[in-house]
Amino acid sequence: MEFNGLVGMDFDFFKKKDKMTKEEYEAARNEVKQHFRSLCYEVQKIYHKKTGGVLELDKEFQNFNKRSNAIVAECKNCQNKFKVNIHLGGDNLSVELIFKSETKEQCEYIIEILKNKKSIIWEYFMSNKYMILCVDYISKTKKSSSLKIASFELNNKNYDNILKFIEGNFNEGRYEFNFIISFSYNKNECLKQNKNFANTVHEAFVSIIEIEKRLA
After folding, report:
1. In 156, 158, 177, 190, which residue has its Cα 20 to 30 A from 36's Cα atom?
2. How far is CA 46 from each of CA 53, 55, 200, rounded to the nearest angstrom?
3. Residue 3 forms part of a structural domain
4. First and final C-alpha spacing in the chain
């Protein structure tokens, strides 16, 4: 399955799908799946060629349906507390490192990472302009509150604001949130790189797995 680059409709699909006929939706959905799956295959091939190892990605996309705002391939190699995904949505494609906090202890774990592993996080953010750090709270009422910083916004004040944001919610008994570190590429960047984008995603994947091991 050859990867020939992503196309504009791979992103636009998520914004236009609700207005499509059933036939249009099925055709466009299958195209997105095909292009995304071929990207995943290409990333796996590059990984094997460079490391001799096997990168396990779930490419069945069973949860990709009419209500989905993204298509996701989850990495099965990761054995630690974090998940690693390739995530394609309406505006960008991201390689994500995700920790889902649900308890007081898990929230404290992320606070400790932000305090004690700051130099590791900064090391990667200062060396790559595509990185994003995000904290996303979702309440039982589905109302969400989030805070994020991109690599070009990284400074002590903004970093401390992320920490204070979590600590403030912690003090109010709110422990449920997603802590996400990602390499995020907007639609134009993805299309501009064409076939070479698979190499970019592979490099991001290698870095994300390195970060996971250093933070865990």
Report:
1. 177
2. 10, 10, 11
3. no
4. 34
* Pairing between β-strand 92-101 and β-strand 131-138 as defined by DSSP bridges: unpaired
Distance CA 55, CA 40 (A): 10
Residue pLDDT, tens place only, 44-74: 999 999 999 999 999 888 889 989 999 999 9
| 37 occurs within a structural domain | yes
pLDDT in tens, 116-139: 999 999 999 999 999 999 999 977
Q: What is the pLDDT of residues 79-92, one digit of tens each?
A: 678 999 999 999 99
Q: Which domain holds residue 43?
A: 8-215
In a domain, 146, yes or no: yes
Q: 177-186 and 131-138 as β-strands: parallel, antiparallel, unpaired?
A: antiparallel
Q: What is the tally of structural domains in the chain? A: 1
Enter the pTM of the model.
0.93
Whether 181 maps to a domain, the answer reads yes
For the record, the structure tokens of 156 come out as 């002590």
Burial class from Cβ neighbours inside 10 Å (0-12, 13-18, 19+) for residue 181 reads: buried
What CATH number should be reported for the domain holding residue 69?
A: 3.30.930.20
